[in-house]
Amino acid sequence: MSRKSRPEAPGTQMPEDIEAMIRVDHAGEYGAVRIYEGQLAVLGVRKSASAEAIRHMAEQEQRHLKAFDALINERRVRPTALEPVWRVAGFALGAATALMGEKAAMACTAAVEEVIDEHYQSQVERLGEADPELKATVEDFRADEIAHRDEALAQGAEEAPGYRFLSESIKAGVRLAIKLSERI
Ligand SMILES: [Fe+2]
Ligand SMILES: [Fe+2]
């Protein structure tokens, strides 16, 4: 086995791996904020349980984004160059699903959070004993994202028309966004 293909032991990540993690998480939390802003632009005036749920989730995403804003600054990590893309794409995804109805908005949240849960879990595993500050942050936020997914499912996400297609398309988009934001 060549040196290059040897799997890395947990906790021995190069600093650039940590940097990529902070960059992609910052981008993701920004995207989440924009998705909820898009949904609230459409559903924000409603008094429904779904609209209430979205407002609560949006507040938590603001907390997540603030924490990664701070990490980006403290650690001098280059933020993603794709921010203008996520600014528009996040808002558009949120607004479009909200226009399809409250259940489609919930299907969007369930899909996004399912991928983010996997993403944060994989970061926790990759971090191992490295960077306890980042790891604690990721674990903390992962618990919120799981709660968002469960709330969205409780609000009838799976009853959205075309749920399977909608969910799979959004998950594929989020996975691509993660890949791009780690590097770019
Ligand atoms: Fe979040
Ligand atoms: Fe979330």
Instruction: Give the radius of gyration.
Output: 17 Å
- What integer is the average pLDDT? 90
Distance between the termini: 30 Å
Let me know the largest β-sheet: none
> Portion of residues in helices?
over 70%
Ions and ligands: fe (ii) ion
Strand count: 0
Tally of separate helices: 6
Structural class: mainly alpha
| Poorly predicted runs | 1-13
Order of helices and strands: HHHHHH
Strand content: under 5%
Global morphology: globular
Topology:
Elements: H1 15-43, H2 49-74, H3 83-100, H4 102-127, H5 132-154, H6 163-183
Bound molecules: fe (ii) ion (2 copies).
Characterize this entry briefly.
This protein has 184 residues and is an all-alpha fold.
Name a few traits of the molecule:
mainly alpha, 78% helix, binds fe (ii) ion, 6 helices, 184 residues
Description:
The chain is mostly helical and 184 residues long. Helices cover 78% and strands 0% of the residues. The chain has helices at residues 15-43, 49-74, 83-100, 102-127, 132-154, 163-183. Helix 1 packs antiparallel against helix 4, helix 2 (49-74) packs antiparallel against helix 5 (132-154) and helix 4 crosses helix 6. The longest helix has 29 residues, at 15-43. The chain is globular and about 45 Å long. Mean pLDDT is 90; it is low at 1-13. The structure holds fe (ii) ion (FE2) (2 copies). One fe (ii) ion is lined by residues 32, 57, 61, 113, 144-145, 148.
